[in-house]
Structures are given as C-alpha cells and as structure tokens.
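Task 17 of the worksheet. Students: predict the tertiary structure of the chain below and write it out as structure tokens. Keep your answer in the requested format; marks are given for formatting as well as content.
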Amino acid sequence: MDFSLLTLLHVAVLLAVALRLFSRRNTNGSALAWLLLVILVPVVGVVMYLLIGERRLGRTWMRRAIAMQPQVLEWARGIPAASLAAPDSLAPGAQGICRLASGAVGMPLMAGHRLQLLPDSESSMQALIADIDAATASVHTEFYIWSAGGFVDGFVAALARAAQRGVPCSALMDSLGSRPFFKSESVARLRAAGVRVVEVLPVNPLRALFVRFDLRDHRKIAVIDRRIAYTGSMNIADPRFFKQDAGVGEWVDAMVRVEGPAAWALEAVSLSLTALQTGADFAPPPPPDLPPAGSSLVQIFPSGPQSSSRHIEQLLLAAIYSARREVVLTTPYFIPSEALLTALRSAAMRGVRVVLIVPARVDSMLVRYAGNAYFNDLLAAGVEVLCFGDGLLHTKSMVIDGEVTIFGTVNLDLRSFELNFEVSLIAYDVAFSAATRELQARYAARSTPIDQAQWLARPWWRRTLENAVQMMSPLL
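Model answer:
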C-alpha cells in the first residue's frame, strides 16, 4: 500500500506522542484525550502537547522542590507541641480526614484558633486593609490575580503605608493571572514604597518551550504579623470592575480570617513558594509565642504540581466518603475526575444528601459545556444540582455533616487537582461549619435547581456538544 509523505509523517508523530504517553503513568482519560486530539488535528494536537501535555515545572524548579521537601517536613515536625492537637479528639469520620491530610502533606492538626467567615469581597477587603493598617511586624501576601481599580487601589495604598512606616511587606503575584497588573502604576507604587514584589512562574515564549506555561500559582494568602491570616477564593480584584465584559456578572467570593498558629503556618507555605521561585533558602522565622485566640482546630493543606500524587483530590474523596448525613459543595468550575464523580454519586445513593452549587454562567464556554455533561449522572443518583444565577459564584467550599469544612482555593476540576499551586483550610469546627452552611444556603436561595426530566429534554445537539467537549475535559 502506498502512503503519502504526509500520511507517514502523521503516523510517525502519532507513534512518537503515544510512546511518550506510555513512558509515564497518565490517567486513562488524559492519555486517550491526547491521542484523540493528535489523530483528529495532528498539527494543533502536537503543538498543544508540547506546550501543555506534561507537568513540566522545569529542571531548576524541580531540583529546588526536591531539595526543599525534607526541609518543609522537618519544619512541620518542629511545630511546637503547644500549637498541636491530637486527632483522637475529633469525631471518627473527621479523624480519617485529619490523618490523611497529615500523611499526604505533613501538616499536623493545630489548636487555638478563632475563625471568622467573611461572606463577600467588600467585607473581606475592608477587614484585610484594617489589619494591614494595624500591622507592626510583617505583611506577607500571595494572590493569583491582582487587578487595579476600585477597592484594590485602597489595598495597594495600605500595603504602601505599611512599608513606608518600616513594616516588611511582600507580595507574590502569578505572572499570568496578574499580567496586566505588572504594567500598571500600582506595581510601581508598591516597589517605590519598599514592598517586595515577586513574580511567580514567569511567562514568556522562550520559557514555554521548556516549562508548561499553564502551571499556575492559584493560591490566595495574606498573613499579618504572623498571627492573623486570610485565605479563600477572593483575588485582589474588585468585582465591580473585574472582567465586566465576560457576560457572567460580578464574581461572588468569600474569605476566612484566621487568628492563631495557622497564620504563621500559612506564611511558611507561601514562603516555600517564594523560595522555589527565587532560589533562596526555605527558612521561615521561628514560630511566635501566641496565646490561644480561640478553640477552633484547623489544618493547612497545600498542594501543587511538584507532587506526582493528586493529594487534594485524595483529601476531597476521603471527606465525601466519610459523610453520614450531608455534603454541600460550591465551586465555580466543575470538571470532576471519575473518582470524584463516583464518590458524589455513591454518597447520594447510600442516603447522604449531596448538594452541588455551581454558577449558571462561567467565563469559559468549554468548561461550562464539559461540566454540564456530568449533571445527568449526578441527577440520576439523587445529587441536587443548583445553578447560581446572580453572578459567577467563585467560592470554593465543602461542608461535611455540618462538622468539617474544607475552604480555600481549590476548584472541583483537574486543573486544581494536578496543575495549580493551591491551598485549603480544613476546619474541624461546628460553629464555622454552621456559618459556611448558612452562606451556602444563601447561595442556594439565589439558585435554580436542575430538574432531571427537563435536563434530559434539552436539545440533542446540546447533549452531543457537551459530551464531545467532556471527552476533552482532561485537557481543559
């Protein structure tokens, strides 16, 4: 049989990509999606695989990460006993979550916290600015997106004031997420005031040849005086001005304000990324001697692409399988792994009430179609799927049985599980869980439940498109 040169080239490229895929362990969905893409659109598929097909942080980053791992574990083992709590003090289901979290990332259960849920961006920013204005020792921030305008200008001014009165201040900004901000006058103002600005995971065409450009720092962390910390879903962006041309309305976020030893633990997590980016030693200051701020027990759970294991997915699975009565989740982007989909369906089928709240519209049409393809399986198992219609619901939360809350930066998608640097706060606290459930209930009141019969009756072309996009979901 005669083959044209183009056909031979196509076969050779397909074999090369297949051998590369088979030389490392991939999820079945990811490997098949890449092979399908290369078969259907060879040139585009190969270029995309070279750019984003593998989790390449670069040799320098990985060398630093490998060298730093024992240092981070040694730091965690050195956390003072006065800041620790025994997992045995938790309920049986919570104990399993706690032990898995400790085993996965080495962070212990910590005591002596006061937690405050801040239910929107405005209240979060007001509290954050007030704490920065009261800072006397240090201010450390790390956010995926910085976007000038609105209340962000007040935040920048507060950081500048703190630095000008002699408080050491630093600001980590993801290179891609904050790209326009680096060209703004706000960055110049921060640097002129003495704020240390660190661009994380720089993006440029040459670097993209050797490092996967969509591995991002998606964390949101602020630490003031090593005793107060913030984390959650809010970027440094005023929702009244941010992405107003996207057609999704204002972004809806929430943050948690933490007082206690988890504050300096969050700072250490952020300093580890600073060290990875700059090449400096990982050397957090010694833990401060703080009196207990409250009675809440928490764990800090960092995750990132430097690890070959999807630790955060393992944590979420353990939490869902531990549920006895109820699991309520909010996420802006829902493209679950098969394991997560099975866990949600299994929980509903064994009688646990499972509620998933997602935005009716998101800022990515492909992600929206891919996510919709999973709804029928969830509805058939008895999962309640609610579509929030009052903006882009961006809060990432999970409450288990009203007792344990996982709150932070992680979306329920493969990007958060595999590609992004993320951070979650696990709160073993009934009062905080109740506050988070109340917030979730307010989201639910502004949402429309999906009716299974109506969902099945949607046009055939819509179902076909959603299923087609879902096949490529491992690549989104």
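Marker's comment: The mean pLDDT is 89. The chain is about 45% helix and 20% strand.
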